[in-house]
Write a structure and sequence with these properties.
With 109 residues, the protein is mostly helical. It has helices at residues 16-23, 27-30, 41-53, 57-71, 80-90, 104-108. α1 (16-23) crosses α4 and α3 crosses α5. The radius of gyration is 14 Å and the shape is globular. Belongs to the plant LTP family.
């Protein structure tokens, strides 16, 4: 039996690996591949999963910091305007604006 025990409010229920897994299907779209107006369904599903998992302030902070790290990766060459429209086009509520310059403290406190 495995116990994922958390004590106090410091333990987030979401990990950076969860965030990477959820965001991965969005990366091709965010690089500028495919139709600009059509976010791939797998990307939207990943964003929904991420939104569903990130319920607490700690979860949102972990998600934001991990996304920021992913989005700032120079070799990905992500298109800012594509990142910005993912939540709206997927109809997913994300507590922060998707951007290469995420300001996590501004949105999760």
């Amino acid at each position: 039996m495995i116990c994922h025990c958390a004590t106090g409010s410091d333990a987030a229920a979401i990990s950076c690996e969860d965030v990477k897994h959820s965001a991965k299907p969005c990366l091709d779209y965010a690089r500028g591949n495919g139709d600009e107006k059509t976010v791939p369904p797998k990307c939207c599903n990943g964003m929904r999963t991420l939104s569903d998992k990130a319920k607490t302030a700690e979860d949102k902070e972990v998600a934001c910091k991990c996304l920021k790290k992913i989005f700032k990766t120079p070799m990905l060459n992500l298109v800012e305007s594509r990142l910005n429209v993912i939540p709206q086009n997927c109809r997913v509520n994300v507590p922060f604006k998707l951007s290469k310059n995420l300001q996590c403290k501004e949105y999760v406190n």
